[in-house]
């Protein structure tokens, strides 16, 4: 999980065309730079620094708004706008004038998490190459997809600006894009045909609590022990030498309150040894981000951890439960995208594509099936168990028209044995000659599950157990 090294060398002159009429004192956050994408349909904060008391005027797409800098900072809000696919220019004027060019208005998503989101499309030895990465690179001619990269940084204090820039997607640039983020953006673009911006802020090997503000952690009574243990060198609670909330301070705070549509989140490996606690940590982080961005309960898409020899099913269960308990979330199942021997599976295309499908259903309200089947309830029927699911689409099926696999069943002794499972309409009937009085069923309950229950949309079912502890 070594961090990706970016080689962007950004200066004020490379980001902005500045026409000085005095000292160049007015400057926006680097989020507001050439090629940026602004979020459609919401008020858009624009902010930066200027001299105390200096009047700042922002002009864009017929709107002119102004404010006066206080404590060296300024912020204005542009009124909501429709999609804009023809490049526009923004001017920011104080004692000097800054011109920001090639701006589009579309959909902006924050792509965050740990190494499987951080992994770029191009090579990263000693990790295995992304599946078909060269073919994907050569076909990546999508000028309406742009990425803003956030450098890897733990910080004890909140960082104001990471001094980066937006990059237009092309075969020459896409190798440095997040692979999952790119495939997600591409799926959105293909389905919606609008500009898509991704803010790439991910760091390998990091637990979710590091992405949460200290105030949000300390304010949750259920996380009292976690906070206390962060002051000790306790293995499993923090990366060596890191500060509590360091990634929130260094990689999320600089983005607030940029207008976004939602978050695509691929993380959990670093919390796998504490799955029950993760059921508190992740909702707490989601609430923290939604509160601090100030844009309501925006969509939050959770990628479930892929199969791996050291990845227990309890962490996938924790992610499933979070998606069920936190509103406006969706779970992206990846049981067919893993590698038993590699925590960084190379088949990233389905992950990004399913994120795009989930976004279209959850965030853009398209009438599509956007989730794989999710266990809803069970009923004991003699020596069998009848399972009901949500998100069945037009019906359930076993992938490749095979026999259902991955189901186990147990009686009161909780000794689970392989089971026979059959699809009947939108239900699955599970039984075994070894269990005459069943009480519980599990599906895909293994570090590396072999399971093949899908819905008509071709989306896999999440692993689950009916004997919830």
Please explain how this structure is put together.
There is one protein chain. By secondary structure, the chain is α+β, with helices and mostly antiparallel strands. The protein contains ten helices and 25 strands. It has helices at 12-15, 115-118, 133-138, 179-192, 214-218, 224-229, 246-252, 275-293, 313-325, 349-362, and strands at residues 17-20, 27-28, 37-39, 44-49, 55-60, 63-68, 73-78, 84-93, 96-113, 145-149, 166-168, 196-202, 262-266, 300-303, 329-332, 374-381, 384-390, 396-398, 407-410, 417-418, 420-424, 427-431, 440-443, 453-455, 464-465. α8 links the parallel β13 and β14 (300-303). The model is unreliable at 1-22 (pLDDT under 50).
Supply the key terms.
3 domains, 10 helices, elongated, alpha+beta, Rossmann fold, four-stranded antiparallel sheet, 25 strands, Immunoglobulin-like, twelve-stranded mixed sheet, 469 residues, disordered N terminus
Secondary structure tally, helices: 10
Low-confidence stretches: 1-22
Roughly how many Å apart are the termini? 32 Å
CATH superfamily of the largest domain: SGNH hydrolase
- Provide the gyration radius in Å: 24 Å
Strand runs, count? 25
Shape field: elongated
- Approximately what portion of the residues adopt beta-strand conformation? 25-35%
- Give the number of domains: 3
Helix content: 10-25%
Q: What's the CATH architecture name of the largest domain?
A: 3-Layer(aba) Sandwich
Content-based structural category: alpha+beta
């Amino acid at each position: 999980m070594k961090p990706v090294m970016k080689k962007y060398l950004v200066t004020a002159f490379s980001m902005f065309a500045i026409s000085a009429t005095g000292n160049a004192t007015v400057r926006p956050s680097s989020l507001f730079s050439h090629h940026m994408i602004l979020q459609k349909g919401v008020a858009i904060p624009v902010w930066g620094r200027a001299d105390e008391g200096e009047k700042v005027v922002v002009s864009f797409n017929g709107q002119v708004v102004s404010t006066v800098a206080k404590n060296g900072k300024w912020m204005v809000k542009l009124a909501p706008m429709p999609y804009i696919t023809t490049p526009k220019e923004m001017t920011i004027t104080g004692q000097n004038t800054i011109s920001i060019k090639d701006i589009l208005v579309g959909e902006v998503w924050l792509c965050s998490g740990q190494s499987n989101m951080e992994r770029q499309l191009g090579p990263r030895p000693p990790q295995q190459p992304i599946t078909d990465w060269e073919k994907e690179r050569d076909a990546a001619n999508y000028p309406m997809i742009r990425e803003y990269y956030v450098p890897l940084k733990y910080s004890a204090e909140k960082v104001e600006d990471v001094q980066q820039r937006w990059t237009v997607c092309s075969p020459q640039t896409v190798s440095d894009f997040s692979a999952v983020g790119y495939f997600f953006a591409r799926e959105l673009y293909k389905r919606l045909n609008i500009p898509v911006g991704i803010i790439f802020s991910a760091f390998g090997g990091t637990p979710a609590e590091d992405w949460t503000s200290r105030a949000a952690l300390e304010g949750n009574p259920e996380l009292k022990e976690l906070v206390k243990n962060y002051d000790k060198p306790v293995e499993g609670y923090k990366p060596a030498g890191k500060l509590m909330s360091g990634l929130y301070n260094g990689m999320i705070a600089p983005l607030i309150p940029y207008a976004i549509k939602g978050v695509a989140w691929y993380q959990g490996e670093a919390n796998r040894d504490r799955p029950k606690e993760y059921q508190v940590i992740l909702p707490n982080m989601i609430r923290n981000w939604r509160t601090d961005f100030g844009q309501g309960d925006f969509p939050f898409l959770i990628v479930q951890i892929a199969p791996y020899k050291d990845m227990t099913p309890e962490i996938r269960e924790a992610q499933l439960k979070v998606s069920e308990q936190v509103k406006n979330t969706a779970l992206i199942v990846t049981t067919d995208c893993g590698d038993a021997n590699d925590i960084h599976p190379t088949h990233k295309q389905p992950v990004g594509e399913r994120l795009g499908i989930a976004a279209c259903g959850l965030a853009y309200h398209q009438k599509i099936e956007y989730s794989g089947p999710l266990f809803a309830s069970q009923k004991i029927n003699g020596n069998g168990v009848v399972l009901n699911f949500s998100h069945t689409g037009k019906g359930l099926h076993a992938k490749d028209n095979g026999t259902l696999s991955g189901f186990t069943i147990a009686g009161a002794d909780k000794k689970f044995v392989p089971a026979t499972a059959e699809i009947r309409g939108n239900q699955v009937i599970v039984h075994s000659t070894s269990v005459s009085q069943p009480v519980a069923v599990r599906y895909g309950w293994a570090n590396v599950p072999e399971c093949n229950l899908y819905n008509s949309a071709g989306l896999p079912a999440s692993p689950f157990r009916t004997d919830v502890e």
